[in-house]
From TrEMBL:
Cofactors, names only: pyridoxal 5'-phosphate
Alphabetical list of InterPro entries matching this protein: Aminotrans_IV (IPR001544), Aminotransferase-like (IPR036038), B_amino_transI (IPR005785), BCAT-like_C (IPR043132), BCAT-like_N (IPR043131), Class-IV_PLP-Dep_Aminotrnsfr (IPR050571)
Family assignment from sequence similarity: Belongs to the class-IV pyridoxal-phosphate-dependent aminotransferase family.
Gene symbol of the encoding locus: ilvE
GO biological process assignments: isoleucine biosynthetic process; L-leucine biosynthetic process; L-valine biosynthetic process
Organism: Antarctobacter heliothermus
Catalyzed reaction equations: L-valine + 2-oxoglutarate = 3-methyl-2-oxobutanoate + L-glutamate; L-leucine + 2-oxoglutarate = 4-methyl-2-oxopentanoate + L-glutamate; L-isoleucine + 2-oxoglutarate = (S)-3-methyl-2-oxopentanoate + L-glutamate
Enzyme Commission (EC) number: 2.6.1.42
Function: Acts on leucine, isoleucine and valine.
Entry's Gene Ontology molecular function annotations: L-isoleucine-2-oxoglutarate transaminase activity; L-leucine-2-oxoglutarate transaminase activity; L-valine-2-oxoglutarate transaminase activity
Name of the molecule in the record: Branched-chain-amino-acid aminotransferase
Length: 304
């Protein structure tokens, strides 16, 4: 078990020691998963000795949307969460890359439909780039279906939604794969467990549309911009699973996954079965941007 006891956590307006951040067992957040969250990365640029939080405001704005979809009685504004994140980062004084997880939750003693009182907390722990970003992953098309907008909207980053990813992830792991791909209720490709996906087909990048029961991923948005800048056309549309058979490359993307090459689906290699040229070029552009090695899009990096 990791020991984070030296770290501080932001909890309801205060910075408290890791071991003192407590939430009551009877709260709707604990009983029913009545909470929404974000995953944000902080990139430590070793040569400049600078920490950049990537697309902080976009994440906090999306968390406002998640709170509205969940009908929270009070929406904690992005500004409040940004200020708290910066204060927490300064208090912890990290000198390596981190993963930040802000949460807004329903506290008190209510039932599953309680809308208040609303509280918030933020954790930040050291986390670098996973090895799979280099090696790529093999994925299984899951027999579990993606939650649909009329059931539990995937557009809200609500904690309870992640039980859907859990089923798919556990099945994929048990069957010897490193990732899962979920189809939605219309049988179309939706996303991976905790990440969006792209294929390159006939020189065009294709990604499931925002009405394909995906989380409206911020990395997906970044990737679309970077691909277009490389001169690669992008189609956001419904995607069939059979299109994997005609893809020359594929990759997952997300704050956690960053740009993870998808090299095989259900035992069938994608293209050459190893990370492709476009994927590698994209990774290089993405990390240049996130680490602030190039000066474009300065508004996407918050220095702390
Ligand atoms: C279900 C799901 N899809 C996609 C993503 C990617 O979203 P983002 O790029 O905003 O991190 C995430 C989170 O990382 C996620 O949890």
């Amino acid at each position: 078990m990791d020991d984070f006891s030296d770290l501080y956590i932001y909890l309801d307006g205060e910075l408290v020691r890791w071991d003192d951040a407590k939430l009551h067992v009877f709260s709707p957040a604990v009983k029913y998963g009545a909470a929404v969250f974000e995953g944000i990365r902080g990139y430590w640029n070793e040569s400049d000795e600078k920490m950049y939080l990537f697309r902080l405001e976009d994440h906090m704005r999306r968390m406002e949307l998640s709170q509205r979809i969940m009908r929270f009685g009070r929406v904690v504004p992005a500004e409040e969460m940004m200020e708290a994140t910066i204060a927490l980062m300064r208090k912890n004084g990290f000198r390596s890359s981190v993963h930040i997880r802000p949460t807004v939750y329903v506290g008190g003693t209510g039932e599953s439909y309680a809308t208040d009182p609303i509280g918030s907390f933020i954790t930040a722990i050291p986390r670098g780039t996973p090895k799979k970003v280099e090696t790529g992953v093999r994925a299984q098309v899951s027999s579990w279906q993606r939650i649909s907008d009329n059931v539990m909207p995937a557009r809200a980053k609500a904690n309870a939604n992640y039980n859907n990813s859990r089923y798919a992830g556990l099945q994929a792991t048990r069957d010897g794969y490193e990732a899962a791909i979920l189809l939605n209720s219309r049988g179309k490709v939706s996303e991976g467990q905790g990440m969006c996906l792209f294929i390159i087909r006939n020189g065009v990048a294709v990604t499931p549309s925002v009405t394909s029961d995906i989380l409206e991923s911020i990395t997906r948005d970044t990737v679309i911009e970077l691909l277009k800048a490389q001169g690669i056309p992008v189609q956001e549309r419904e995607m069939d699973r059979s299109e994997f058979f005609d893809a020359s490359e594929a990759f997952f993307c997300g704050t956690g996954a960053e740009i993870t090459p998808l090299i095989d689906v259900d035992g069938d290699p994608i293209g050459s079965g190893s990370p492709g040229e476009t994927t590698r070029a994209l990774q290089s552009d993405y990390f240049d941007l996130a680490f602030g090695r190039k000066s474009h899009r300065p508004e996407w990096r918050t220095e702390v």
